[in-house]
Amino acid sequence: MESSTLKICPVCGIEFSANVHNQLYCSSKCSHTKWKLSRQNGIRKKYPNTYFKDKSCRNCGTIFKPSAPSHHYCSEECADIGKKDAYYSRNYSITLEEYKDLVALNDSKCWICGVHNDDIHNSLAVDHCHTTGKVRGILCHNCNVSIGKLGDTSEALLKAYNYLKKFEESK
Fold this sequence. Notes:
Elements: E1 5-8, E2 15-18, H1 28-40, E3 55-56, E4 63-64, H2 76-92, H3 96-105, E5 125-128, E6 135-139, H4 141-149, H5 154-169
């Protein structure tokens, strides 16, 4: 059986009985406080900069020194491109380049209403079939949501068209 030794907590100054030989703090609260302070003051980094070998950027191929194992890009710009590419791949099974090609097919305009990409708050959305996952085209947010609200069916869209047409003719 191990005997406990008396130590003084460096955070609160209370004398405590250490249960293990390398116990430094009287409680987990003091340990966490010391950790938070060291992180805020920049005294201790989670990973030292010299620990990781140089890597090739996943986007542009530039050699860089990562500061964590999860760093795969040399800059914020490359990371943003990588995140967008991963988003389109994960959600629509297309690459960022394929998305850009689809946008360029209609001169950066919504394929339904024709609003230009520069005239809307968000970028043009990928319209896809929720049953098959197949990409149909590139739409502005309003057109994409409208089709979705009509159940993604041409019959519902035709009924809405006929409904509006009936009242246009009666003007």
